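Quick start: read one record
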Amino acid sequence: MGDPNIVAGLPVAQCATRPGSLPDVRARLSELRRTRPPTMTIALDDIDGADEAISVLAEIEAAKAWLDRLSVTAAGALLSWSEDRTRADLNHYGATATERAQTMTHARTSIIDEICLATGLARGDATARAETGVLARREPDRTTSALAALTTGQIGWWRARTIITGCTPLPADQANDVASAVLRPTRDGTTPSPRLIADRLAKELKKRIPGRVRRAEALGRRDTSVRLGDDDTATLGIGGSTERVTAAHDRLDRLARRLRHAGDPRTLAQLRADIGLDLLLHGHSPALCDTTDPAPRRTAPCTPPAPDHASHTTGDTTGDTTGAALRAAYPGGLPDAHATVIVPLSSLLGLTSEPGELVGWGYLPADLTRDLAVRAGSVWARLITDPRTGQALELSTPCYRPTAAMARFITARDHRCRAPGCTSPATTGDLDHVRPFADGGETSTTNLAAHCRRHHGHHTSGHWSPATAPGGMTTTADADTADGTTANAVTNANGPLTWSTQTGRRYTTEPHRYSDPDTGESPDATLDGRPPASGTDGSTPPPDPGPPPF
């Protein structure tokens, strides 16, 4: 491949310093892409001998690593460009320290989202590439070993990312020393495997970072996670201190064994899972209430099992403290757990096998959604769509906050955040004025769109700007004057929205199409309807957080 540090006759680090001014690099990459896979596949099929094949495979992986090195540099250059441009604007306007911090944060996140849109990278991967590229520019000594190994193809991007991220708490010189130690060849001369790299890195970090510091940092990142399976099941993960998590699992195991001892036919594994979900969803497990203790010690009605009173001074909130906080926040009892499932009427009636959608997560098979529909406790709401477009079918209020009826209609119409590439559920985001309220934008279903908090921030900070696109923009009749003055545009968020990003690119999004979310095909049904009239339900409007706190 020649010198991996040279692209188009220029050093890699110099090639990606000015976004939009790299015609030579783009030409070289375009030339590489013009060699179509079918042509190369035919050549690879003619490889004679396993040794030759493995050599070609190694070259392919090395080329991928080399391209990833370019990607890291280009992403870092783009992030630096955004930060420098924003910093100059803030200096010009004399922004306060708080304004500077908030605006810089949104400059970074908006450019990361642009990288995702242009490349298809996941947000975490795009962030890691951009931040690594910036780090390499500002502290080259910190990343020298890891990025050199990436450039030569010794390791891939994911291994380089693991090393660089893991060394973040260390000073620059120590970080590079650790990277060199982690990347040293094995005794048999082979490249360290991902598992060996992780083991070496953990060992080196433990030698340099006190355990209490690593523990505090890890506890600061504790969270829950959901992993969806391909078999219509899911796994819930809960992070926390070792003693609390193991104690929780031990409690589930003891409760499961109690039920097994009482004759429950489920396996211990199934009982642990069922009891854990029951306790989270209901505050108690019905199975425990229905079971007679082999040695009953009370005749009182069933109550949720009492917590184990162990001493938890772990850095994360103790169980007793969390319980007290929840009781104070919900004096009338904890709210019910709920999930929203959208089921096509044709599927509900058994006419088709269209899957239902578990909002925010994914799709469920038709038979399961039909079962959920008739299950006790299910609550249904009707959604009528336009038969031509498959979109949900103007409400307005003089106030800044939308009414409850408007909120329901907009979340149904948009279903997800209206920003390009975003799949965040509309129910978890904000109702954002497309034309700002302060600039005369009205609070109506035609000027409000569902935006997640992140993209609402891009809009409010001015890094991204949504506007109604052709087909979604109308003009007021009385504004079309004969003296040539500009007509006042009236936004119509019921149609397309065109977003202008920080780099000047444009992306157009449309309201959700319930008939076919992917292709936007019109439904066969002949439904008709209109959004609910303002104020007809008499309910109190939901709290509107307003613009994000910038």
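DSSP finds 19 helices and 16 strands in the chain.
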